[in-house]
From TrEMBL:
Protein known as: Cyclohex-1-ene-1-carbonyl-CoA dehydrogenase
Record-annotated Acyl-CoA oxidase/dehydrogenase middle domain positions: 120-215
Swiss-Prot/TrEMBL cofactor(s): FAD
EC number in record: 1.3.8.10
This protein's record includes keyword Flavoprotein: yes
Length: 380
């Protein structure tokens, strides 16, 4: 699909920001393992942390297509920064925007859009990953408040977060039917960070194990209806998958751009590598996968903006874009030879960053389950 002028302007604006403010620090972010506060502030100042938050709540008032472009262009230069924006926006802001009361929206969205409060999404646990229904975190009704106890794993933005979207059982059931959702501020007594993961890739993005030890939250911290938290989680992940697909696309585009420049400059056997037909075939396949990924992402984003069902399409976008990113970054290293295997060259970082896009917010296997289930239901 073709982007209209409005989206082209947004893309060009974010591209310029990414090349100026993100690219120069990408290697440093990876090596040091954290995002500088100054960079987070610049993201907020440019409206990237509240892109589709309505202006009445302090956001930029954009749509989901614009958000996808933002994540793509930032991730092209730094996937750690890209997932920071994606998790905060898709997983932290979106459920409040779509399931929150008016009071919750007014309290949280302005501070989240401004970057004062960073959001995170607390669903996974040590023994509950893809099988979200088996979580054991429990929220007990104490009359005038809820008391939450449990441990959450693999929480992106866990270190920076001021607000957690927490899923807990409020009724002891063997499946997802007893899950409710809560908004928990990280300054609440009993909240703590147990550890920060030492990861293969997206090393500048914090991934934490969080503890909730007798955390007391007010009754109005419930997000959505009681025992309907699984619906909140699944709806949030549907949109979040578009964000991760956009991150994967950005990584793939960045690796491809570097491979193009390298093969045009690198001379072997008296000619640039790019003159060799075998190299050209590899570049053609990389370009085609990127183009197909982009169309799938834009299609899912357009459906979401139009208020149409998009669960299958978001799963398709994430599945294809993430697996393409892994393939493309692998080929980018191959094209750069021994140089590509060193940390001096960015394709090594992009290769490490790409792998997680096949895992978080639903593994590739889960995406295939979602897609197949949708197709089987559609045929009678």
């Amino acid at each position: 699909m073709l982007l209209d002028e409005q989206y082209k302007e947004i893309r060009d604006m974010v591209k310029k920001f990414s090349d100026t403010e993100i690219l120069p620090f990408a290697q440093q972010v990876d090596h040091e393992g954290h995002l500088p506060q100054s960079q987070i502030q610049k993201l907020a100042d440019n409206g990237f942390l509240g892109s589709y938050v309505p202006e009445e709540y302090g956001g930029a008032g954009m749509d989901y297509m614009s958000y996808s472009l933002i994540v793509e262009e930032i991730s092209r230069n730094c996937a750690s920064t890209g997932v920071f924006v994606s998790a905060h926006t898709s997983l932290g802001i979106w459920p409040i925007l779509n399931f929150g009361t008016e009071a919750q929206k007014k309290k949280y969205l302005p501070k989240m859009a401004s970057g004062e409060w960073i959001g995170c999404f607390c669903l996974s646990e040590p023994n509950a990953g893809s099988d979200a229904g088996s979580l054991t975190t429990f929220a007990e009704d104490k009359g005038d408040h809820w008391e939450i106890n449990g441990v959450k794993n693999w929480i992106t933005n866990g270190k920076e977060a001021g607000v957690c979207i927490v899923f807990a059982k409020t009724k002891k059931t063997p499946d997802y039917k007893g899950i409710s959702c809560f908004i928990v501020e990280t300054t609440t007594p009993g909240f703590s960070i147990i550890k920060e993961e030492d990861k293969l890739g997206i090393r500048g993005s914090s991934t934490c194990q969080l503890a909730f030890d007798k955390v007391k939250v007010p009754k109005d911290a419930l997000l959505g209806d009681l025992e309907k938290g699984f619906r909140v989680a699944m709806a949030t992940l549907d949109g979040g998958r578009i964000g991760i697909a956009s991150q994967a696309l950005g990584i793939a585009q960045g690796a491809f751009d570097y491979a193009i420049r390298y093969t045009k400059q690198r001379v072997q056997f008296g000619a640039p590598l790019s003159d060799l037909q075998g190299i050209q075939f590899m570049l053609a396949d990389m370009s085609t996968k990127i183009g197909a990924s982009r169309l799938l992402i834009y299609h899912a984003s357009a459906l979401k903006d139009a208020g149409q069902p998009y669960s299958k399409e978001s799963a398709q976008a994430k599945l294809f874009a993430s697996e393409s990113a892994m393939w493309i970054t692998t080929k980018a290293i191959q094209l750069c030879g021994g140089n590509g295997y060193t940390r001096e060259y960015p394709v090594e970082r992009m290769f490490r960053d790409a792998k997680i896009t096949e895992i978080y917010e639903g593994t590739s296997e889960v995406q295939r389950m979602v897609i197949a289930s949708s197709e089987l239901k559609a045929v009678h």
